[in-house]
Amino acid sequence: MSQHKQEFYRTTPARTGKMMAIMLGICLVGGVIFFSMWDYWTSAPAPVVAQMAGAKQTESAAVATGKTITENLKFIESPDFRTLSFNALPGEEGHNPTINASVGDKIVFNVENDGKSFHAFGVTADAEGFAGIFPSSAIASASNPLKPGMSGTSEFIPSKEGTYYYICTVPGHREQGMVGEIIVGAPQAAAAPQAAAAPTGVHHDFSVNFIESADFRTLSFNALPGEEGHNPDFTVKSGDEVTFAAKNAGKSFHAFGIVSDPEDFNNILWKSAIATASNPLKPGQEGSVTFTAGAPGTYYYICTVPGHALQGMKGSFIVE
């Protein structure tokens, strides 16, 4: 009778030690990666929480008013991370600013994570919680948030009167203070717009220089406040042809355009832009644009880089 010889595989203590060292190394590296992203793991809701949060809200289409409201918001935190808010901490000027709008207005949100934790943004009609976010208003999400230093843009057009809320959609952050109100009133009756005149054949040449104060806190055209030539007014007739030449005589980046609302740098009129916020004039660069003045009214020439008009880069462009 033949006997079956069974083979046994053995290893040496040295090989066993190497294998254990490799496994320990993998565990250590995995642990370091996991705990270095602790804020991320804790900011993402578990699947059951996401299901309980409910579906996003939908907003019926509104008749657009043509008005754009631009709101710049920053996520910030207190040093102990117990208080979260937008733009400023409680008791400080600019804390969670209230936005007033009418039905059909377009609200554009420029949102930046100026804190050290992870955040996300959205608008909801719900008075509590982080559910019911209108899809067009969402920036990032709790499971894929904005990391520190990141930013994003969204928009929201309300279709009915009432109170809405802009919030951080990371669970718990609204309760810690990251919530502001949007008060929406009845749609305003639009005044009949004046029509632009036919081309007059008259041509104007204007020029402006972008300049900055030494501390960069004050921005303007041609001269600083209190100096001769500061932000000059320009007056033309409807239908006149206008050429603007703009030079960046400063050290920052700038761009030019004519708008109806100096706080709305997204709505450039009459194809009057020179460069853009995303492709601006660098120091020493210059450009020009020619356009026909539209309907009579008071308009504004501004730097279209976000925030620069608020720092002083705006002047009146009057069409008679």
The sequence of SSEs as H and E is HHHEEEEEEEEEEEEEEEE
Structural class: mainly beta
Strand order of the largest sheet: 2-1-4-6
The shape, in one word, is elongated
CATH superfamily of the largest domain: Cupredoxins -  blue copper proteins
- Span from first to last CA? 118 Å
Low-confidence stretches: 43-55
GO molecular function, one term: copper ion binding
Protein name: Putative rusticyanin
Keywords: Copper, Electron transport, Membrane, Metal-binding, Transmembrane, Transmembrane helix, Transport
Features:
320 residues; mainly beta; Immunoglobulin-like; 2 domains; 4-stranded mixed beta sheet; 16 strands
Summarize the structure.
The protein folds into 2 domains: 118 residues, Sandwich (Immunoglobulin-like); 117 residues, Immunoglobulin-like (Sandwich). The chain is built from 3 helices and 16 strands. About 4% of the residues have low confidence.
Could you please describe the fold and organization of this structure?
The protein is mainly β and 320 residues long. It has 2 domains: 68-185, Immunoglobulin-like; 203-319, Cupredoxins -  blue copper proteins (Immunoglobulin-like, Sandwich), CATH 2.60.40.420. The protein has 3 helices and 16 strands. The strands form 4 sheets. A 4-stranded mixed β-sheet has the order 2-1-4-6, with no helix packed on it. Strands 3-8-7-5 form a 4-stranded mixed β-sheet, with no helix packed on it. A 4-stranded mixed β-sheet has the order 10-9-12-14, with no helix packed on it. The longest helix is centred in the N-terminal third of the chain and has 24 residues, at 13-36. Mean pLDDT is 85; it is low at 43-55.
